[in-house]
C-alpha cells in the first residue's frame, strides 16, 4: 500500500486521456469561434435579400450567405461533439444568448450601404481563404478536410469582393467616396481576426493553426494589392474594435441575434 500522505502520479493512460480532453476542448472553442464567424456573417448577408442593388447581386449575396451557413453547420456540429455536450448546430445557433457567441466583431457589423458590405467582405474573405488553406495543411484531419473544401468556396466570395472593390474604387466620384468611407468604417475591426491568446498559442504549437502574425502579413499584402488596383489606400485606423472572441459585442448584435432566433423562441422544440 502507498505510504500515508504520498500522492500517486497519474498513470500514463490517465495522462493521455487528460491530454486528449484538453485538445478536444481547444478544438471545440476554435470551431465555435470559426462557426460563429460564418453564421453571423451569413445572417448579415441574408439581410440583403430583396434589398441588393440589382437582382444579380441579390442572388450572389444569397449564395454567399448559403455557403457561410453551410460552413457554420459543419463547424458548430463539430464543436458540440468535441465539448462533450452533444449540442447540435441548431442548438448552438438558436439556443445561446448573445454573450455566448464568439464571433469576431467584423462579422456582425451592420451592412450599411453596399460599399460598406463590400469592404467587410474584402477584409473577411481574404482572411478566411488564407486561414482555410492553412487549416487544410494542419494536423487535425477533420479541420483539414473542412479547410480544403471551404477554401474553394471562399475563393469565389473573395473574387466577388475584389471585383466590386475595384469597380467602386474606379467608378464615379460618388462610388469612390463611398468605397473609401466603407473601408474606413470596417478597418478598425480587422485586427481582432489575428489576435493571439492562450488558445491560439496552444493550437499553433499543436500544428492546427498557422502563426497568426504570418497570416496577418499575408492578408495585408493580399488586400493591399486589390486596393492598389482600385486606386484606393489601406486605411490606418487609430483604434481597434475587440471583444467578440470573449462574448462582448456591438450594440447592433442583440437585434441581429433576436431576429435570427425569433422562430425558435416563438416555437421552442418545433420541427418542420
TrEMBL record:
<dbReference type="InterPro" id="IPR052703">
    <property type="entry name" value="Aromatic_CoA_ox/epox"/>
</dbReference>
<dbReference type="InterPro" id="IPR011882">
    <property type="entry name" value="PaaC"/>
</dbReference>
<dbReference type="InterPro" id="IPR007814">
    <property type="entry name" value="PaaA_PaaC"/>
</dbReference>
<dbReference type="Pfam" id="PF05138">
    <property type="entry name" value="PaaA_PaaC"/>
</dbReference>
<dbReference type="InterPro" id="IPR009078">
    <property type="entry name" value="Ferritin-like_SF"/>
</dbReference>
<dbReference type="InterPro" id="IPR012347">
    <property type="entry name" value="Ferritin-like"/>
</dbReference>
<protein>
    <submittedName>
        <fullName>Phenylacetic acid degradation protein</fullName>
    </submittedName>
</protein>
<dbReference type="GO" id="GO:0005829">
    <property type="term" value="C:cytosol"/>
</dbReference>
<dbReference type="GO" id="GO:0010124">
    <property type="term" value="P:phenylacetate catabolic process"/>
</dbReference>
Amino acid at each position: 500500500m502507498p505510504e500515508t500522505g504520498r500522492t500517486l502520479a497519474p498513470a500514463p493512460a490517465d495522462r493521455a486521456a487528460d491530454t486528449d480532453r484538453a485538445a478536444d476542448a481547444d478544438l471545440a472553442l476554435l470551431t465555435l469561434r470559426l462557426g460563429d464567424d460564418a453564421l453571423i456573417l451569413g445572417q448579415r448577408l441574408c439581410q440583403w435579400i430583396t434589398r441588393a442593388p440589382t437582382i444579380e447581386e441579390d442572388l450572389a449575396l444569397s449564395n454567399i450567405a448559403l455557403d457561410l451557413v453551410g460552413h457554420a453547420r459543419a463547424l458548430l456540429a463539430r464543436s458540440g461533439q468535441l465539448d462533450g455536450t452533444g449540442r447540435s448546430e441548431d442548438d448552438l445557433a438558436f439556443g445561446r444568448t448573445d454573450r455566448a457567441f464568439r464571433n469576431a466583431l467584423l462579422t456582425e457589423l451592420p451592412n450599411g450601404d453596399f460599399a460598406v458590405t463590400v469592404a467587410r467582405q474584402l477584409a473577411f474573405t481574404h482572411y478566411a481563404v488564407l486561414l482555410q488553406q492553412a487549416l487544410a495543411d494542419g494536423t487535425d484531419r477533420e479541420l483539414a478536410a473542412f479547410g480544403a473544401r471551404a477554401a474553394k468556396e471562399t475563393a469565389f466570395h473573395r473574387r466577388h469582393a475584389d471585383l466590386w472593390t475595384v469597380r467602386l474604387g474606379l467608378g464615379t466620384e460618388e462610388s469612390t467616396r463611398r468605397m473609401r468611407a466603407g473601408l474606413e468604417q470596417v478597418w478598425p475591426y480587422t485586427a481582432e481576426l489575428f489576435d493571439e491568446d492562450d488558445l491560439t498559442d496552444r493550437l499553433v504549437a499543436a500544428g492546427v493553426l498557422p502563426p497568426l502574425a504570418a497570416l496577418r502579413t499575408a492578408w495585408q499584402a493580399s488586400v493591399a494589392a486589390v486596393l492598389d488596383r482600385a486606386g484606393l489606400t489601406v486605411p490606418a485606423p487609430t483604434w481597434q474594435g475587440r471583444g467578440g472572441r470573449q462574448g462582448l459585442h456591438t450594440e447592433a448584435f442583440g437585434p441581429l441575434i433576436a431576429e435570427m432566433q425569433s422562430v425558435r423562441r416563438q416555437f421552442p422544440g418545433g420541427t418542420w
